[in-house]
Inverse folding.
């Protein structure tokens, strides 16, 4: 009996180092969070586009740096970032002695983090890491380990633009502007309710109708009935896998604006046989 106990003890001691050498499994990719793009450009103009949405439109002729939350524009399937660099125009182009460089990063961040504390997914740096020619688009297929929660992509139909569809969008915009000028907060909320609810879901915070109504009421008091609809040179652009249509003027600006400087971007989807404001 003692010999058996001794053999068992020897076996346990010899096996222990094997167990001790096992390393903990590294954490897998995050299952939620915020897709954030950071950017900076010096001496050169920068455009950034995510699934058709303009993060930066390239119209600025100045150096800049910033960040953008793109959770609203992440699709369930393939996601793409497009980047284009162009020469400065006019007098800004004359500053040839200054260095020209640009950088774009995509992070997954968590609540309370600074963007650069998150997980780096994509990194574009010019001219260090890429020699892409100026004026040409660089397309990056994003590595997206999860899709932010959203009902939009499940409900929005694929849009095919036609004269009839564009005409119905004009009518929709006109009726929405009339509703805004009515200053009826409850009616206004019914027009933007899908957007408000889905935005809450995408951003991981609860939708509280009373809070939304309070926010709309505050807007109506500040803006009043000064909303105007631009009806000439309207542009219709399909984005996000043709599930959203962006409605702007020829400059890419919102067609609904107030005399007090406020403006409302119009992003529409075709849901249940009608246009719905979704972003």
């Amino acid at each position: 009996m003692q010999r058996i106990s001794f053999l068992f003890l020897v076996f346990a001691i010899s096996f222990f180092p094997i167990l001790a050498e096992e390393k903990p499994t590294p954490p897998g990719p995050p299952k939620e969070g915020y897709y954030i793009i950071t950017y900076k450009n010096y001496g050169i103009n920068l455009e950034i586009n995510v699934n058709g949405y303009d993060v930066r439109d390239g119209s600025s002729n100045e150096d800049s740096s910033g960040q953008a939350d793109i959770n609203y524009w992440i699709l369930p399937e393939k996601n793409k970032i497009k980047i284009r660099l162009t020469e400065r125009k006019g007098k800004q182009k004359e500053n040839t002695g200054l260095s020209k460089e640009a950088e774009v990063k995509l992070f997954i961040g968590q609540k309370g983090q600074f963007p650069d504390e998150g997980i780096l997914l994509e990194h574009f740096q010019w001219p260090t890491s890429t020699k892409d020619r100026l004026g040409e688009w660089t397309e990056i297929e994003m590595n997206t380990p999860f899709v932010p929660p959203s009902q939009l992509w499940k409900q929005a139909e694929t849009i095919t633009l036609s004269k009839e569809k564009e005409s119905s969008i004009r009518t929709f915009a006109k009726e929405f502007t009339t509703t805004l000028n009515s200053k009826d907060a409850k009616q206004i909320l019914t027009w933007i309710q899908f957007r408000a609810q889905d935005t809450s879901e995408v951003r991981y915070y609860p939708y509280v109708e009373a809070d939304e109504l309070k926010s709309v009421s505050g807007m109506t008091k500040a803006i009043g009935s000064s909303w105007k609809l631009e009806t000439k040179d309207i542009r219709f652009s399909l984005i996000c896998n043709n599930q959203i249509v962006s409605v702007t003027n020829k400059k890419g600006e919102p067609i609904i604006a107030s005399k007090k400087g406020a403006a409302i971007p119009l992003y529409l989807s075709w849901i249940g046989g009608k246009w719905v404001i979704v972003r």
In short: The helical segments are 2-20, 152-155, 163-182, 185-202, 209-223. The first strand starts at residue 34 and ends at 42. Residues 42 and 63 are 5 Å apart (CA to CA).
